[in-house]
Structure formats: C-alpha cells, structure tokens
Amino acid sequence: MKAHSTYKGTRRKLLLAFDVGTTYSGISYSILDPGQIPEIKAVTRFPAQEYISGASKIPTLIYYDRAGAVKAVGAEAVSESTIQSAEEHGWTKAEWFKLHLLPNPHTSPTFARAIPPLPPNKTASNALSDVLHYLHSCAASYIQETHSNGRDLWAQTQHEVEYVFSHPNGWEGFQRQQMRDASVAAGIVPDERAAEERIMFVSEGEASLHYAVHNGLPQGALENNDGVIIVDAGGGTIDLSAYAQRGVGNFEEIAAPQCHLHGSLSVTFNARTFLKSHLAQSTYLDDLDHIVDCFDKTTKLRFRNAQEPQYIKFGSTRDNDKDCNIRIGQMKLSGSEVASFFAPAVQCIVNAVLEQRRTSHKPISHVVLVGGFSGSDWLFEQVSQALHLKGLNVVRPDNHINKAVSDGAISFYLDHLVRTRVSTLTYGQFCSLKYNPLDPEHRARPASQFTAYSGETRIRGYFDVILAKNTQVSETKEFREEYCQKSTERDFFRRIVYRIECYRGGEGCPRWRDTDPTMYAPLCTIEMDFSHLALQPRYLLDAHGQVRPGTAYYQVDYAIVLSFGLTELKAQIAWMENGKERRSPAKIIYDPDITTT
C-alpha cells in the first residue's frame, strides 16, 4: 500500500468526502495535522445502525411527511417502525433521486421510466440537500464521539471544513453546480462563495483510481507503459476510466471516461419486468413490490451458478401457486432466468471496456472492478471470462470495495495523482466566416450568408472547435481566445457574455451546425464584468484624421482563458492594465434545460 505524503499545511484541517450514491451513501474523512502523514477514516456508525459493526454506508433514502418535512433518512428510513408510520400518515419516499440529475445523453429512455418520481413539491436538488445535511450531522456526531478531544476538534475546524464530493463520470457542470447549491441549502457552507472555495469535485472513476493505487492495484498492472481501466460498478451507474502512470505519483487519463445506466438497479429492474409478466395471472401480482425487494436483498446477492435453480423466499408456508413455481413461500426460478437479469450489465461492462481500450492513447492490459455491484461473484466471473478471451486481466480489491469512492475522494485531495485528463466532448463556439465563393461548403449554404456592418459577405453557423473530444489535456494547459468589445455605453461592460457550445455526436471533426443540428447544445455561458476598468472614450476619425463629432465609444481588449484539464471547467478573463496582464476568475453559468433530464 502506497503511503500518503506528509501534510505540509501550517494548521489543523478537517477534510470530509461525501459519496451520495444512487442506492447507498458513505462518508470518509481525514484530520490533517501539520507534519503528520494523514490517515483516511470512514464514518462507521449511523442512527438506527449503531449496533452493526463497521457499517460504512446507509441507504440513500428519505421519507417526507405531507407538509414536505423530513421524517427519516438512511437506515432510519428502512426500519419497520418508519415503514409503518409512513403507511399510517401518508409519508412519501424519495429514492434513486440522484438519477434525476443525469444529463440527457446518459439516460436510457427505458430505464428512465423506472426511476421513481420525486415526492410532491420536491426537486432532486431538495432531496440532495436533505441527504447532505444528514450526512454532515452524522459526520459531526461520529467525529466528536469517537476521537479524543473530538468536541474540541470539531469546534476548532467546523467553520473551515473542506469537502470533496464525488459524482458519476457522466455528470457535467450543471450537476456539480446543483451539488454546490444543495450544500448551501443544507447549511454545510454558508454561501455561494464558500461553496466555490471549500468544495471540490472528483469523478467516481478518478476517486476509484486513487483507492486502487492504495488498495490492491495489481502488481505489474502499470509496467511497460501499460494502462489500467477502473470500472466502478455502483447501484445506478457503471463508470469507466482508463489511466497510465507517468513517473512516481503521476498518472494520466488515457481514454475518455464513460458512464452507463447499468448498475445493480438494472438487475432489479430486469427482475421486476420478468416477475410482473410471470405473475400476471396470479394473485401474488399484488405482492410484486415485496417479492422484488426480497430478490434484491437475497437472491441477487447470492447468485453464483446459472446451472442451478434459484429461489426467492418472500412468504410463509401457506403461500403456494403451482403455476408460478411458488411453494411454501418460495418462488423457484431457473439459474438461466436470473442470469438473464444480469446479462445487459455484463455486456455493457465488456463492451465499454473494449471501447475504452480501442480509443485509448496507450495499450491496456488490466481491468480493476470496484464499487458495491462488483461484489457480485456472478458479475465478476462473467466479466472476467469475457475479457480474458480478449487478453485482459480482471481483478477486484479484497477490502471494502464499496468504500472505494469515498476513501478515494480523500486520497484525491491528499495525493493528486492525476495530472492529465481526456476530454469527453468536443467544445467550441459558433461564429461567422468571411464568405469564400471557391469553398463548396460556403456555396452550399446560401441561406446562411449575410452582409456584415463592414460591407463584406460572411456566412453563419461555423463551429469553431476549442477542444476536440478524446484529447489529452494537462492541468496546466490553457486555451486562450482573444476578443475585443466596443460600445458607446460604459454600462455595456458590466455584463459581457461568452457562450461555450458542446458537440455530442459522432463526427470526428464537426464543422457546421446544420450537418448534425440536434447534437449541438449550449454547455454554459461565461459572464464577465469590466466595469472596474478606467475606460477612456475613443473616437472615430474622418478621412483627414479629425475626430468625427458624436462618435465617442469605449473599447475593451481581453482574453478568455479556459482550463479543461482540471476536474471541472475553469475560466478566467485576462486584460492589460498599466502594461501588465491582469486576471480574474469568470463566472460560469450552466443551462439546466440542456444538460439534464
């Protein structure tokens, strides 16, 4: 196991990582003391779970009353008393709500229909905020109760806690902004500025790499310049990321990360579809929810052999239905039927791994499975066998693979192993070009031609690529675009907007909006404020070099500096002032109508 580096800070700090999963959530933390090597710890005691030793995760589940108040969260929400109270008082349940935030391109229409609706008057962000508030209170209680001088430690650090939030590989800027907003609403941080300063994000794939480096990355996996694919198989999503080592403690991403809706919930969804049809003519159809729940908690977890019959124990000895293979409270299924529930997830992982290997910038020989779903022996064996035939070695760490993301998120903060990442989309902006009558693509677009203010003929709809998909980008790489804005009004410079578009289609080199119009979408807008500059009026001159009356205007020359190689897009504005370049962060605003379901 690789040791973490000594903490070089000058004062004690508390670091919390929240892994809000589709089905289960967990917390890891580290107390950073100057000159000491940090340790990664997990919160292993939660309300209603106090007597389960080492329980590091709780269900991502909330009950609300009719007025919208939170009544139970986590393990409390699955207790018999809570379920009974919910039935008596008409409480509503929020589950799988994280999937409501997935961007459109990652959402399967069939599976999307299976996502439970949110409670009345609640958004996914509301539910996320309530879970974050609960996790934060659990972390506070655990740290204060289990550490010597824990109350003093919490009092000393609570107002400057730094957070790492993990998220599926498929999440984009809008989803990260939703998490920041939810953290403010939860009272974790006081305001938007604190959320920007004290919360950072890491993809589940990258967090899992950090975990694997410290907990079971196979010997020789990264030798000979080979890469490794990390498969984080969770409840809702399958996240794949590929990396190679570039010297000690330095990794590069070598293929565009992927996110697929084929987590363990897809097995449950497939089982429900089968059982609904199987019980269509039976009185036990009314018990479908309970039977599926029993399958989920027992049969699915234990399944190992497709050659043997499988059983769902859901009732008592009085429950019998010969036509549906129900005898003394157990439903008998063939092993092949249960295997079919897993088949789409297995095929998804195999295909995705092979696709990543095909598009990788370096050869790949190893695959590491982490996440709660990878604990399924059937899933692991099927994936291993299929990929072994393709020359890939598949392994999974021995210890606590369901903690890979939260522990890995802490390691991401401490160790910062990945310095180069791969773009998942093609980014750019639409602009106009000077019309070229010799260019057949220009001639083919007469409706896009227009006469500019200068009198020249131009053509609209050209996609100016800033960064192409599947390009490796280092954290220090900057993309700089130079601009000039003019206006007769000084107030114009209080809000200048720059729009970044993304292309999600299959063209290798997209050029024109009209060739694949549905695949272009606004990613975000960048807002800039230059009102602080001491702008001096300029004037238009006539043919004799004299000032033309009434032609005063103001001009700002600036650059937009984009960083795509970080865990999230960052933008700065740059301008010259007194002969020196000045820079300031720019505000990024994401469009929710485009990026989410």
From TrEMBL:
One of its GO terms (molecular function) is ATP-dependent protein folding chaperone. The keyword Aminoacyl-tRNA synthetase does not apply. Keywords: ATP-binding, Nucleotide-binding. Signal peptide: none annotated. InterPro entries: ATPase_NBD, Hsp_70_fam. It comes from the Eukaryota. CDD domains: ASKHA_NBD_HSP70 (cd10170). This is Heat shock 70 kDa protein 12A. It comes from Ephemerocybe angulata.
